[in-house]
Amino acid sequence: MKHALIDIGSNSMRLTMYEIEDGSFKLLFKEKIMAGLAGYVENNILTRDGIKRAYSGLLDFKETLECLGSPDTSVFATASLRNIHNTDEAIATINSATGYDIEIIGDKEEALLGYMGVMHDVDIDDGAFVDIGGASTEIVSFNDRTPVNVGAFSIGSLSIYREFVKKIIPGGSSLKRIRKEIAREINIRGEFPFDTRTPVVGVGGTSRAILRLGKKMFNLDDDCSAITSNQLHVLNDFLCSGSKVAINMILRTEPERIHTIVPGIMIMTHIFEQFQAKELLVSKYGVREGYLCQKILKNEPINTNILRTEN
């Protein structure tokens, strides 16, 4: 059986198609659109242009899926539609234009689905899971492959960029304001019970971009999936310098994230420091694979009876 998932995120929209057999899955196809929906939010309202951007992306995906045999398709949205005041209006308009029913994933469920996806990829008993999106960040600490604490924060790479960066790369004063905002959201408002944990397992576009930039900067092997604490901090300082060399490296390696990678790596570095972690391991799986396992394959249910921390 083939099944497709469409993930409507704040920064990107992603289509993945899987082959499902005997309770396991294999990725067959993937495609993304850098829709930047968080950039269409004004006064917590997703504008008409933003709604149109969302359903236009879905129609593009629908056309692709028709070429792939029109498999069963599930569509879900995270902070992109969850954190706005006109969620119902946006969903109704998108449904009318595309025929897709959209499931809104709550912040805690998003974190746990992402964690579940990671556990199907990495063989790690203890650590922390981090997913930095365009408008939200999720953290799950775990022991013996069991979630201990969950954090959901209304801060992301694109939302930080929109609020604090005037041009493309933040300057000195913007960097100071960003650091202050990250600490306020995560440490003060979030009250997440940080303890010493390693590794940090990163998922999502920001984490993958950090890894690719790390490979480029430190000449790491193509199949490398981790960078050290020292490498993360050196890369963070280099990108935050805003030098021409740094900008050129972003343009050559992650051009689509030229405006969001600095806020993204600043969030990751801050979280890394709170955990006193020694290694960032980047997983190829995340919320989509967790959704597939929990919602489609009907694997073990999500345990929601754990501590929740959110702003």
Mean pLDDT: 94
Shape: globular
| SSE string | EEEEEHEHHEHEEEHHEHEHHHEHE
Largest sheet: 7 strands, mixed
Label the structural class.
alpha/beta
Q: Given the structure, what is the number of helices?
A: 11
Question: How many beta-strand runs?
Answer: 14
Instruction: List the uncertain runs.
Output: 302-311
The total domain count is 2
* CATH fold-level assignment of the largest domain: Nucleotidyltransferase, domain 5
Q: Tell me, what is the CATH class of the largest domain?
A: Alpha Beta
**In which range does the helix fraction lie?**
40-55%
Strand order of the largest sheet: 12-13-11-8-9-10-14
Question: What Rg, in angstroms, do the CA atoms define?
Answer: 19 Å
Q: What's the end-to-end separation, in Å?
A: 40 Å
Overall description:
By secondary structure, the chain is an alpha/beta fold. The chain is 44% helix and 24% strand. It has eleven helices and 14 strands. The protein has helices at residues 48-67, 79-82, 87-98, 107-119, 157-164, 172-189, 204-218, 229-240, 244-253, 261-275, 287-296; strands at 2-8, 13-21, 24-33, 41-42, 45-46, 72-77, 102-104, 127-132, 137-143, 146-153, 200-203, 226-228, 279-282, 307-310. Strand 8 and strand 9 form a beta hairpin. The protein is globular. The protein starts with a strand and ends with a strand.
Features:
44% helix, Nucleotidyltransferase, domain 5, 11 helices, 311 residues, 2 domains, 14 strands, alpha/beta, 24% strand
Task: Describe the protein's topology.
Elements: E1 2-8, E2 13-21, E3 24-33, E4 41-42, E5 45-46, H1 48-67, E6 72-77, H2 79-82, H3 87-98, E7 102-104, H4 107-119, E8 127-132, E9 137-143, E10 146-153, H5 157-164, H6 172-189, E11 200-203, H7 204-218, E12 226-228, H8 229-240, H9 244-253, H10 261-275, E13 279-282, H11 287-296, E14 307-310
Parallel strand pairs: 1-6, 6-7, 8-11, 10-14, 11-13
Antiparallel strand pairs: 1-2, 2-3, 4-5, 8-9, 9-10, 12-13
Helix pairs in contact: 1-3, 4-11, 5-10, 6-10, 7-10, 8-10
